[in-house]
Amino acid sequence: MTHLRSEEINDEFDGDTLHEECGVFGILGHQDAATLTALGLHALQHRGQEAAGIVTFDGRQFRTEKRMGLVGDHYTDPAILAKLPGSIAIGHTRYSTTGEVALRNVQPLFAELEVGGIAIAHNGNFTNGLTLRRQIIATGAICQSTSDTEVVLHLIARSRHSSTADRFIDAIRQMEGGYSMLAMTRTKLIAARDPTGIRPLVMGELDGKPIFCSETCALDIIGAKYIRDVENGEVIICEIQPDGSIDIDARKPANAQPERLCLFEYVYFARPDSVVGGRSVYVARKNMGVNLAKESPVEGDVVVPVPDGGTPAALGYAQASGIPFEYGIIRNHYVGRTFIEPTQQIRAFGVKLKHSANRAMIKGKRVVLVDDSIVRGTTSLKIVQMIRDAGATEVHVRVASPMIFYPDFYGIDTPNADKLLANQYADVEAMAKYIGADSLAFLTIDGLYRAVGGEDRNPARPQFTDHYFTGDYPTRLLDKNGETAGLKLSVLASNG
Amino acid sequence: MTHLRSEEINDEFDGDTLHEECGVFGILGHQDAATLTALGLHALQHRGQEAAGIVTFDGRQFRTEKRMGLVGDHYTDPAILAKLPGSIAIGHTRYSTTGEVALRNVQPLFAELEVGGIAIAHNGNFTNGLTLRRQIIATGAICQSTSDTEVVLHLIARSRHSSTADRFIDAIRQMEGGYSMLAMTRTKLIAARDPTGIRPLVMGELDGKPIFCSETCALDIIGAKYIRDVENGEVIICEIQPDGSIDIDARKPANAQPERLCLFEYVYFARPDSVVGGRSVYVARKNMGVNLAKESPVEGDVVVPVPDGGTPAALGYAQASGIPFEYGIIRNHYVGRTFIEPTQQIRAFGVKLKHSANRAMIKGKRVVLVDDSIVRGTTSLKIVQMIRDAGATEVHVRVASPMIFYPDFYGIDTPNADKLLANQYADVEAMAKYIGADSLAFLTIDGLYRAVGGEDRNPARPQFTDHYFTGDYPTRLLDKNGETAGLKLSVLASNG
Amino acid sequence: MTHLRSEEINDEFDGDTLHEECGVFGILGHQDAATLTALGLHALQHRGQEAAGIVTFDGRQFRTEKRMGLVGDHYTDPAILAKLPGSIAIGHTRYSTTGEVALRNVQPLFAELEVGGIAIAHNGNFTNGLTLRRQIIATGAICQSTSDTEVVLHLIARSRHSSTADRFIDAIRQMEGGYSMLAMTRTKLIAARDPTGIRPLVMGELDGKPIFCSETCALDIIGAKYIRDVENGEVIICEIQPDGSIDIDARKPANAQPERLCLFEYVYFARPDSVVGGRSVYVARKNMGVNLAKESPVEGDVVVPVPDGGTPAALGYAQASGIPFEYGIIRNHYVGRTFIEPTQQIRAFGVKLKHSANRAMIKGKRVVLVDDSIVRGTTSLKIVQMIRDAGATEVHVRVASPMIFYPDFYGIDTPNADKLLANQYADVEAMAKYIGADSLAFLTIDGLYRAVGGEDRNPARPQFTDHYFTGDYPTRLLDKNGETAGLKLSVLASNG
Amino acid sequence: MTHLRSEEINDEFDGDTLHEECGVFGILGHQDAATLTALGLHALQHRGQEAAGIVTFDGRQFRTEKRMGLVGDHYTDPAILAKLPGSIAIGHTRYSTTGEVALRNVQPLFAELEVGGIAIAHNGNFTNGLTLRRQIIATGAICQSTSDTEVVLHLIARSRHSSTADRFIDAIRQMEGGYSMLAMTRTKLIAARDPTGIRPLVMGELDGKPIFCSETCALDIIGAKYIRDVENGEVIICEIQPDGSIDIDARKPANAQPERLCLFEYVYFARPDSVVGGRSVYVARKNMGVNLAKESPVEGDVVVPVPDGGTPAALGYAQASGIPFEYGIIRNHYVGRTFIEPTQQIRAFGVKLKHSANRAMIKGKRVVLVDDSIVRGTTSLKIVQMIRDAGATEVHVRVASPMIFYPDFYGIDTPNADKLLANQYADVEAMAKYIGADSLAFLTIDGLYRAVGGEDRNPARPQFTDHYFTGDYPTRLLDKNGETAGLKLSVLASNG
């Protein structure tokens, strides 16, 4: 989903992390479709906590429920699930930046086509969304959301193909970028992954019924079996037959390109118990810590993770270095809703609302602080300060991924390039000084590749996408580079 | 707005009245645009209490607020008005039937066009809305609401004309039915009334700035001056110029047809203090009572209005007959929200939740009960019973409009024809017996025409539209008669 | 209920009327106790719209539901009524001034006594409430609301009598003022009226079960039979027996004093269809208009009521004077919640949010405007202006009650004496000039007495209480005159 | 706070943990009193998430805000903090069982006394609360909540002492049990801890102003300095003087008894970064794991904590045993509100809504699962099953505290004794079989004592209270053993 990050973003409080925007889940032919979708979305909640939506088809009509907030705030309520009968369902959970909070933007989106209704949900971003939007508006289309998903719907609606599946393929052939997409009609569940395979999407099965979802953890929660990853550039069309059996048709409409999964899925986004691209995320993260210990050893008394992201890498670092692993920072999980917009006075407490130093493990110690990544460095600065205030004699920061220099255009919400720590200081020493650390080190790009895939980066044909570290974007960037950069939408503010 | 009346409608409680669906208000070039629109909509609240919406343009972007409930429940809140800056605004208040309650259907609707954004709101109904909807979906349009207003937006978006005004005219030329419509762009406020002039629309002025609204009462509340009625088939385009002055361009794109205003505006819908088609609604209603007294006199001790609709006619009846006018029925104005869906046990109290007999004026009296109209007769039956229970010796019902035989297709929510009292009984005596009255009489169609316009009905060219009484529809009825009758929409249920 | 009217009261908008604070309803031995109580309170809604509460006893425990807002906003919801099982119920609806809005103050209040639970609700005010409160706090009681009702509970709890009925009588013997009170225990429904009979209370019967309520209109809505008024100083104790039969025991614990019902019940508070003290309120109001026409005739073209209060008197004035009665002012019944706290800009529209001039009946006419009473005159001023703006050539104001000079201490919320119009100007001419009327006249006190009771006021022993007009208070005013005037409560602000 | 645990408790879902009921925080003389209290309560959120309340005194009157939900859901909102001006504040956060959810029970409670207002909040429970309640009701007191705190208020109100401090001491001398209590008046902040010191309470200081709170983590969040623990049986009275200085008066009204802090504070309740009784909770928990490894070693491939409670002990177990520590269970922190009352179908997913197995660390491994305690064993059963389903070859459960046999009466919500796992099975083998573990072992009582205090349990005079393990209650249990056991309150259901 496209969005231009508001400049008035809450740097100090809301934190200094990258955000993934979406998780998707779909199932075909199961009598508990909506309940299973709710559970799957709950397992994918880490991919987006702002809003969630589910669409079902009850045999006669499509049903939609969309709600702001957590899946578990709404979709386990019997009254809401009762409004979502039917055996086909797709669902979506999303993160969004300030100012765009509106139910009309919450996916799945639905359209009435001549051939019947279709609902769509996706994770990721289109790099030519604004360009296409401008083209279809020029030919008389009406856009009512600011979501790129709507553009896909228009392309489907305008396709000259007769079958929904062909129309869908026709539409996604025109979309560029990184995405995992689910669509449903009255009888079909369709899954598609972008040609480069930037965003993850897996296929599973429960009681013989096909499921697609962003990560394997959504299969685990419902006891479903993992079948395989949807391949890059693949479209899988599942259709329920009159006799209740399900036909599955996998196509590769796009020219084959090598897959390049997003490394940040391994570094930060995916849940540690998920298996992404056939690799355990937890193991990859521990490996990052192990490699980091080898590359950047330091004398220390305790290895302390910055929770929760840095924990597996810290464990790896501790195991490889022999320095004891200790919980030197305690996380407060009870951060309520209004802490998202606190008074200025409370805002000043910043990082302390979420974290506190465990003085007994810090005082008088040389602390090796392990984090998964550093974006702006504003949080690191505060955490280092908190550790010092708790009595650490030295604070060494070790980061389990390389320095971030470039913005993402495939669904990760990145700050402007000039706000990135790596672009603000000349070298690592200057950065260390800014965050107040006695030393600072980042994992190398090869160290990261080895942690995830077992091999160094192949510069000729990188095995993953790593553009935020290297500037090597896996696709062209039409909206960014083209004339559409200045395009403004007329309507941005609405409660509808 | 099209809607198919739910069969599970609350006959017994929600009452036995016809509903108008909308009021509109728009203003151009005034710094208090949103506040004035909120006040205007408040004055038009009798035309629809379910939901209200306002759109403004703040010089950079369009702003929308839509809310379920009364105007005064939301739009006078400083926090909400602060979200609606700008000097152009249109607003809409609407009534809707059960089951269609959804913010996405609340007007004004907005679309992003190549030439810029446009917002539209209307009162009335299109008789070819479903037909057109099917056509545009067939050519790749996406419809996301069940509102005909969206169809107008699509026609505007698809028009090959370059100026917004020409596109607007192009679109409404394709629409048939009865409507008053307002549109706004970044610089323009456009008003249009259907070729037959079925629904009312007036033009006013405040501080030199043009205003359009459904009734004059919306001008009165803000102290604006009444200029004239928008004529049938007329489109008035007001555009703010770079120097702040306003150009006004009135066009008659449709072939001239004689105006035929809806008689029910006089009988029931319009507020008594409004002037519709140049005639005081209150005076017209009193005249109906006067004519009714002449046509259907009866011996009685008191004339009692059925509040609030029957009050002016009852006063006219009393003045003409010399029988004293008394408040024999007291209305309870504090009917809360859940009384709209009460328990079955409370439902049984039906009419008593809103009305009570003023025993002191009823007991031992021959009561002449005057009502504005009878639809199904279910309420009349209960009110007659309530009057008898309070001790009346005789109850004579006099109705200040003719018998209703036919459904409306121009924005009045009418029950199925076979539910209408006039279609259920052979003659007036049988109806009187059903409702329990000692006698029953309706105003004649000529009596009604004379009360409103001073002359008998001209059968060759009726001065008003009176199809609910006569079956003489002023336009063709494409959706009703054509093949689209069975068209179903896929998505009907949503909280979005 | 005691409360000191906030000075920051919304003079301009919230209006210029007196407020009654409460309506009560109770029933014993009926299986639909809560539903009937909800309906009764709905009929009494004019006595207080801020909040309502119902207590039932289900055979095992007491159940309470309290809600801000209208009865019909909550108590007809099946889910809420389901929480109120049982065959004994009392309920209360109340009006309250700004700043005291809190559920903990909403009646009925409940206390756990050694002899079992008791719930109490009352209409009216105690003139020694603060004095008693101070005394019981001094002896170790804890007060958790700012309601005088709580004081009654304490007195009951501390009584040395053993039976609940005796304790109740013991408590109310200590209370001074004007009140109608209902109490319920596990088996009893008790009704009491103050020794002077200032506030009304009637007894009715449905299906052989006793009912008590503030006005007869609450009997009418449920089809209950009126039995008699509770007498001044009377306590009626109804107790359900093991065999289901009901014992009724009427006592007169206080020394007999002549009854003096509050004249404002006739002038403004009671619903016109109620019978108070054996007299039709509607007939009394019409008589006030008739007497006013005799006392203060004027040449005019139309008699226009200020709705809704002035309507019956206007009808009487018109009938007595022969001047036609017309609806020259239309009331907007759709005033929503936020209009209660509107923006400053909308506030400026003041009276127009509720009323509009019906120009067709005003323009070029000499208007006789009839209102029920004038408190501060701020509303009168605006209404006269509105009538002039609509084109009246003359405006003559006739008020169907005498001038108000004195505050009330028996449950009517009166402004400070120096805010009363009658105290601000030397004579009627000066008042007329202030409100902008060509002439102004008030009904005489004898005219009012004759309208209500058929006889002139007996100065030696007035038949009613009329202290707001005359300063002749029917009881001593201990809190006002005594040392407790300065007593402040520590806690005033809470959302609990 | 007293409450009898509902039998219809959600065994399967809500989990199988003990609940502490409260956290308290108070500060005197600081201009940001309410904000600091909100932050302190946020840090104490783990002690109760159901509701929170804050009382301040603004120099003229007391202010109260009470809200259901998390501190961060409400008390950081500028609008709410603005309602809590003043430099004295106390606050409370609480856990409560089903069916007692009502704002009127939310602390702090307030009472108007003759000597002025007083507000009280406490953590813990009185073992003679019902007995005292019965006594004071018998002498005419009115109880309006079901909270024991109200009983304390009554005792204060009824005390014959003149100063508030003496009255407070008089009251708590009558209360038996385990509690930490804060009280505030217009000028005083009073802290008290029960004679045995069962519940924790610490004293701190910020900008020279005294603070009292349940745990040191509430001092850390605001950067306050820890002064000392309030001693068992101690009452500390802080009073602000006219010159702004603060007098502190520490008293020991009760006869000195040896302190016996609750061991469960170390095992489960307190936050790991808190220092309770001078000992780091985190270090104590790690020691429990170390001792457990020594007492009950087992061959295993990974040590896996049951998050979050078992994590420090698991780390200790791993360090002592040399078996690698791994996150074999991932916790989902995004459990929303309706998951608290999910559909039956979703309920079946039970433990999976909160936890998932990290298959990569489990499959083919011998897993040593470390948990902090076992209550009923229902959750353990499911977690063992989840680990087996993820492919573990063996599952050995090690519990870092002894078996629980006895209920608590000092503020810990314990299930009925017959529901405790230890009471349902004859021996550890039978328990292991029930939960499906290959082996099961509990820490010994001496192992626990050594982990916390460094020494074995002194049977003659135990250093802590450990009644849930041993049945050795540190006080008499009047309500439990006495005649009040059957006392029922009349009113239990209310939304007020």
From TrEMBL, chains A, B, C, D:
Protein's pathway: Purine metabolism; IMP biosynthesis via de novo pathway; N(1)-(5-phospho-D-ribosyl)glycinamide from 5-phospho-alpha-D-ribose 1-diphosphate: step 1/2
EC number: 2.4.2.14
Domain named Glutamine amidotransferase type-2: residues: 22-241
PROSITE patterns attached to this UniProt entry: GATASE_TYPE_2
Highest taxon above the source species: Bacteria
Enzyme class: transferase
GO molecular function terms attached to this record: amidophosphoribosyltransferase activity
Reactions that this protein is recorded to catalyse: 5-phospho-beta-D-ribosylamine + L-glutamate + diphosphate = 5-phospho-alpha-D-ribose 1-diphosphate + L-glutamine + H2O
Catalytic residue positions: 22 (nucleophile)
Gene3D superfamilies in UniProt: 3.40.50.2020, Glutamine Phosphoribosylpyrophosphate, subunit 1, domain 1 (3.60.20.10)
Described function: Catalyzes the formation of phosphoribosylamine from phosphoribosylpyrophosphate (PRPP) and glutamine.
Record-given protein name: Amidophosphoribosyltransferase
